Amino acid sequence: MRRYVQRAGLVLVLLGLLGACSDSDYQPPAELDLDVTRATLSNGLEVVAVPNHESPIVTALVTFRAGAFAETAEQSGYSHLLEHMLFAGCESVPDPVEMQDKLAALGISYNATTARDRVNYFYSMASDRLEPALELLSDSLRAPTLQAETLKRETAAVLAEFDLNDSNWDSVTRRHAFELLFDAFPNRTDALGRREAIERVTPQALRAMHDTYYVPNNAQLVLVGDVVASDGLKLAKRYFGSWKRAEDPFAAHPVPENPALSRTATDVLTGKIKESRLLVAYQGPSTDTDFRGAVAADVLARLSVLGNQEFRKLISPPEVIGGRIWHWPSRHKGVIALELYIGTGYEGSAIASLELMRDYVDHISDSELTAAKDALWTGRLRVASANLPLALQFSDDWALFGGSDPHAYLEALYAIGPDDLARLFQRYISARPRAGVLLTDPEHAERDLTQELENAW
Fold first, then answer.
1. Structural domains of the chain ordered from first start
2. According to the 3-state scheme, what is the secondary structure of the chain?
3. How do residues 281-320 score in pLDDT, each as one tens digit?
4. Residue 405 pLDDT more than 80?
């Protein structure tokens, strides 16, 4: 067990990875003061306790390294469906209605999220209910009933999410761009999954997925809120300690890496829309192999949100109504994308205006770079003030960056300079194959924009 206070001025622990930086380079806008206790149980479960006694509420969150990246094409969407099923009965409370009644009786607010790199489940409740809540959470994660009738109902609910997603033009554009960008294994980037896989799911197939990835040595438990760290660790050991360690799921089921895109891929989609959408996407850095590059991509994306001077040149109505740069981080190659909203009829001129982005990083001022870094770090400071957002941040850091130390991100962030942005462009964007998807109305899709799309950004 290791206990320490994380402060923004502590010794730099990643100097070997990040390169030394002077005190003058290390200037966060405020201090992050977290009392963090960590332990690893004998079965491999990582436990993190972060006391915050400002209110009598505690959040318990369990994260698994699962999600889209671990799914075969036949399993695409199983992680998402399991998210639904684990609140619908377990061995100790097999009836779904009784399960809901017990959650309500304990005053538990609960939910789960599925992403490309992780799945997490969380309960928030009054701190005096922590013990029975952890007992129920443990039972639900370890021994869900996965009953056929319940699965039928939850499958219908997930299929309804597909319908909702298909009615959202932003989702349609991004989903298709990701399919082009990761053409070898497109399903391994999409947490929603594939409709045909969900329609064929069986309780046995879902059980196999659960038993492979829902194991303690592939999981992390975070307790944040009104809890004494030593008490939280005792409860974690009591209710999760007997959970048997299993084979490393990724030794038995190695994840194939999406290869580099061999050529630029583009497509034009049509729909009844009021403004066109353009997404130009690149395979970005892996948080495993290029952590510093991934943080630089965060900075690049934040610069566009802040509307720095060079990016504002691109937003020129009526051609370009709005836009931003996105970074979706991942341990299995992230995504850097430019998304624009375009006035219908101006698609060609808007695509041509992307020429402005070719030397974008050469015109970012020092003050704009500092503002972007401060904005990213301040966002994390805001997260640290509330139990659930902080627990979710620990979850993402653990799943995406291989650890759950927010200090590591801080050190990487304030080491980013102009050379890092230039390197990011050169390695992942400049003259690299990319995916380009234009969504417009049928009237303005008649002109062949394929060549313009291939040359964009």
1. 2-15+32-252 (3.30.830.10), 265-455 (3.30.830.10)
2. CEEEEECCCCCCCCHHHHCCCCHHHCCCCCCCCEEEEEEECCCCCEEEEEECCCCCEEEEEEEECCCHHHCCHHHCCHHHHHHHHCCCCECCCCCHHHHHHHHHHCCCEEEEEECCCCEEEEEEEEHHHHHHHHHHHHHHHHCECCCHHHHHHHHHHHHHHHHHHHCCHHHHHHHHHHHHHCCCCHHHHCCCCCHHHHHCCCHHHHHHHHHHHCCHHHEEEEEEECCCHHHHHHHHHHHHCCCCCCCCHHHHCCCCCCCCCCCCEEEEEECCCCEEEEEEEEECCCCCCCHHHHHHHHHHHHHHHHCCHHHHCCCCCCCEEEEEEEEECCCCCCEEEEEEEEECCCHHHHHHHHHHHCCHHHHCCHHHHHHHHHHHHHHHHHHCCCHHHHHHHHHHHHHHHCCCCHHHHHHHHCCCCHHHHHHHHHHHCCCCCCEEEEEECHHHHCCCCHHHHHHCC
3. 999 999 999 999 999 999 999 999 998 888 998 998 999 9
4. no
